[in-house]
């Protein structure tokens, strides 16, 4: 310390260092700590001995490993479910598509074979072919 | 093993619930903590309560000590924070109480006249300290009485070293100014 910074001389400094912790203060503190421990047993971390010699670091490693394993299991299950769901949807879409094509081929022959469709329509038409001559003859007979 | 290594080891044991380890810490730092509490708070009773509370906190917070500073610095920090909070919460109206000024340690003086002079010196210095603003008094005590370095004080008060130096300079000026008024007649204070 620089001389110009010195405010207290040695006597004054010594005087200020006088009060020391009174007798009995430690026992008072010890009692308070014991009471605190009794009232809040969980506030102090359990010692390694109480945990079967497992240190805090080992506890953390185990916790981290368990957490990671749990995450991996969850993630794996989630992936499986997703994949499965995707598969069933794909299958469903594919099946629907095939069914639709089959349906179109069966029920809409126009798309499959237009000429056969036209022939079929003509042959299956419930209406007789009406020509101008037939129409005139029918009209005359009605009159 | 140095004091600080011993203290660090004791702190680890405190974290696992070892009360004896706290006793070791009290043996190492109890007087310094009590003295600082006494000078900042101004009475024996307050200093005893504060010392008890500080060591309870040391025990409870032992696990939070990161080892970045010395254990003594960490305990000083807990002490200063507790004392300043106490002062703020009490909102004392005027100056700090000077009741129960303890007697000077008999080992510091040899004869009767020396003891009387010592007691007088103690009373005057404490009176001046009590009239200083709280923060100035704290920083002054950490430097002048506990003889801590600027770096240690900056860690304790969580201030940059430059700020510590300037505040300490102002605290010294304040001390000199107050001392000039109360002790020049007795010729106790340094000019």
Distance between the termini of chain B: 43 Å
Average pLDDT level of chain B: 80
Fraction in beta strands of chain A? under 5%
CATH homologous superfamily (4th level) name of the domain at 1-92 in chain B: RNA polymerase sigma factor, region 2, helix turn helix motif
Compute the number of strand runs of chain A. Answer: 0
Question: How many E strands of chain B?
Answer: 0
Figure out the total of helices of chain B. 8
- What is the typical, i.e. mean, pLDDT of chain A? 71
User: Uncertain spans of chain A, ≥5 residues at pLDDT below 50?
Assistant: none
Structural class of chain B: mainly alpha
Largest sheet, strands/sense/barrel of chain A = none
Give me the strand/helix succession of chain A. HHHHHH
Summarize this structure as a short list of keywords or feature phrases.
heterodimer; A: 143 residues; mainly alpha; B: 191 residues; Rna Polymerase Sigma Factor, Chain: A; 8 helices
Describe the protein in words.
The complex is a heterodimer of chains A (143) and B (191). Chain A is mainly α. Helix content of chain A is 70%, strand content 0%. Chain A contains six helices and no strands. The model of chain A has no long low-confidence stretch (mean pLDDT 71). Chain B has 191 residues and is mostly helical. Chain B has a domain at 1-92: Orthogonal Bundle (Rna Polymerase Sigma Factor, Chain: A). Chain B is built from eight helices and no strands. The N and C termini of chain B lie far apart (43 Å). Mean pLDDT of chain B is 80; it is low at 98-112 and 185-191. Chain A binds chain B through residues 5-9, 11-22, 25-26, 28-30, 32-34, 36-37, 43-48, and chain B through 15-19, 22-23, 26, 30-31, 33-35, 38-39, 44, 47-48, 51-52, 55-56, 59-60, 63, 102, 104-105, 108, 118, 121-122, 125-126, 129, 140-141, 144-145, 172, 175-176, 188-190.
